[in-house]
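Before the break, one more example. Copy the sequence into your notebook; we will annotate it together after we see the structure.
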Amino acid sequence: MPERKQITWAKLRVGVLVLVSLVVFGVGVFFIGGQTGIFTRKYTLKTYFSSASGLPPGSQVRVAGVPVGVVEAVRISAFTEPEKAVEVIMRVPTTYQSEIRVDSEARLATAGLLGEAFVDVSRGGPGQDIIPEGGVVKSTEEADIKRIVQNTNDVISNLRVLSDKLNEITGQIKGGKGTLGKLIYDEAVYNRMNQTAEEVRQLVSRVNRGEGTLGRLMSDDTLYKRTVDSIDRLNRILEQTESGKGTLAKFLNDPSVYNNIHQLVERANTTVDNVNKGQGTLGKLITDDQLYSRMNNTFDHMDVITTRIEKGDGTLGKLSTDPTLYNNLSTSSQSLREFLAEFRKNPRKFLTVRVRLF
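Here is what the structure looks like once it is written out:
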């Protein structure tokens, strides 16, 4: 009988040990899954995303990066908006309820580049209302890993195209094509550059030896001495001007010059004012309308006279347009020239005086 009780007690100890192990294992799994306590009170929140992006039930829910709860369910929502295609049910301890407010935002994130997905909720402001049981947390979308990989592939493709173009350009350069290729591989360019460098070297050598205009300017002290003399003369002129000597000094320092100029300007202003007022001969010529009318009438009369002359009217018009007067004057001048010629040859012929008494 005692032997039987000993066997039963051994079996009971094994069962208790297995049960305790199972409890410890469950508690460990519970903590690893993101639960903060077995008997902690929890409440439910919702959020919506355009895609679950590999977010399974049981994923972590974090507030400001701190694990606080778990994703209870992920399902297709009843909304038709693309940004609310997936509904995520979250279980969060009530101890964090004051941290999640109406201005909080939920976003999908991953632990590292290829880690597991989780929901990260930002902390709300202290002046905002707390989201109640079953409330909805606003969501914000970020570029997921697929888009990042796709964009990376596009960048790599562009880099490959750029690399091909660079290889093509370097091939053309190695072949001596294009401007850069000719500069690198064409010996004629090298020879010209070498020749230019040699000419520059010779020019510098000539300058150092004092040859040529530039060489004389660099090596001859005459230009330097003349420059110093000119500066000395300028300094003497300035000293004389400051001391009141010379015409320039008097012009700058003598107040009578200023007074004369000031009086001249005042007289000029007075004259201009008188002209503007119509005083004096110049003022009347500028401001009197009668003078303008008379001059205008005079020009009109002159236009009439010139028109009559062009038409041949009147004495002056006939003198200007009738060729008879020109012919008569030409004939008279010709006769006068002939008379003078005969008179020079035989003046007695024209100066003989005959006296008759009867």
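The mean pLDDT is 77. The first helix runs from residue 2 to 32. Try to locate both features in your own notes.
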